[in-house]
Amino acid sequence: MGRATWFDADGTKRGGWTDEEDQKLVAYINEYGIGDWRFLPRKAGLQRCGKSCRLRWMNYLRPGVKKGKFTPEEEEAIMNFHSILGNRWAAIAQQMPGRSDNDIKNHWNSCLKKRLERQGINQMTYQPIINLAVKTPSFNIDCGNSSSSTVSASPSFSSSGSASLLNRLATGISSRQHGVDRIKNIFSDPRTAIITGQEEEFEESKKDHGKALASDDQEDDFLMWDEENMRRFMEEIGQMDPEMNGVCNSSSSSPYGIYETSLLDD
DNA sequence: AAGTGAAGCAACCGCGGCGTT
DNA sequence: CAACGCCGCGGTTGCTTCACT
């Protein structure tokens, strides 16, 4: 696979990479490390632009990059992180060691997004597009690569799973006195199952942070955040990324500790 | 066997953030 | 403080492979 090779006006090579080019890039970085991407190609004897080298290294050649099919656990993780972080693929990739942002983004766009559409779930809000009252049967994840795991459909997935997690995160953030610690607790809590119901705990959270949830409008599945709340949330998520890594990795043997229970419980 | 569309993957493009001058 | 350049990110495109007719 890959693109055809061509040269642009200034003689820079574009398109697919050859084995020889890969070897040159790897050999150079192994010996000298990553320095200035601008000058790296020339020093490494490549006719590529720095951007292209960086992309190739980060997405394909970098040690530890995992290639091949996504496991059901990884797919579940992507959906869960996406429900929290949105299209911040780099941030999602940070939580999934071995997978590049490009890889995750591609898998999302080519497979997971369509799967949610087929299931009638809004890909941005993770809410069912169809009437909640409609009883939805179980369905199979049918993305070829996934070993056929059955996941119960909405409402358990959308409103009790990711939505619940979101609510609890929102609750944590709404209370400035708990702030990041509250979110870390949510992530580190082994009971934070994505698919199993979390309504009880959410109710408890609401008691803890009743003031933040005072409005009736906020009693729905999703809190309605204003821009200020959302901005704070994204800032705090950004600040805690390294720590969240630790939390996720330490809570279980799985690299994706926060969500593994949902798939491994049965 | 040939044609066609969907799926999957690799890479490019353009923009915004950030550091430097 | 503005201008500039580089880097990283997200969106998009292009190509190959696969499945189906």
Automatic annotation (TrEMBL):
<comment type="subunit">
    <text>Can form complexes with MYC2, MYC3 or MYC4.</text>
</comment>
<dbReference type="GO" id="GO:0080090">
    <property type="term" value="P:regulation of primary metabolic process"/>
</dbReference>
<feature type="domain" description="HTH myb-type">
    <location>
        <begin position="9"/>
        <end position="61"/>
    </location>
</feature>
<feature type="region of interest" description="Disordered">
    <location>
        <begin position="199"/>
        <end position="218"/>
    </location>
</feature>
<dbReference type="InterPro" id="IPR001005">
    <property type="entry name" value="SANT/Myb"/>
</dbReference>
<keyword id="KW-0539">Nucleus</keyword>
<dbReference type="InterPro" id="IPR009057">
    <property type="entry name" value="Homeodomain-like_sf"/>
</dbReference>
<dbReference type="GO" id="GO:0005634">
    <property type="term" value="C:nucleus"/>
</dbReference>
<feature type="domain" description="Myb-like">
    <location>
        <begin position="9"/>
        <end position="61"/>
    </location>
</feature>
<keyword id="KW-0677">Repeat</keyword>
<keyword id="KW-0238">DNA-binding</keyword>
<dbReference type="GO" id="GO:0051707">
    <property type="term" value="P:response to other organism"/>
</dbReference>
<keyword id="KW-0805">Transcription regulation</keyword>
<dbReference type="GO" id="GO:0000976">
    <property type="term" value="F:transcription cis-regulatory region binding"/>
</dbReference>
<keyword id="KW-0804">Transcription</keyword>
<dbReference type="InterPro" id="IPR015495">
    <property type="entry name" value="Myb_TF_plants"/>
</dbReference>
<feature type="domain" description="Myb-like">
    <location>
        <begin position="62"/>
        <end position="112"/>
    </location>
</feature>
<dbReference type="Pfam" id="PF00249">
    <property type="entry name" value="Myb_DNA-binding"/>
</dbReference>
<protein>
    <submittedName>
        <fullName>Transcription factor MYB34 isoform X2</fullName>
    </submittedName>
</protein>
<feature type="domain" description="HTH myb-type">
    <location>
        <begin position="62"/>
        <end position="116"/>
    </location>
</feature>
<dbReference type="InterPro" id="IPR017930">
    <property type="entry name" value="Myb_dom"/>
</dbReference>
<feature type="region of interest" description="Disordered">
    <location>
        <begin position="242"/>
        <end position="266"/>
    </location>
</feature>
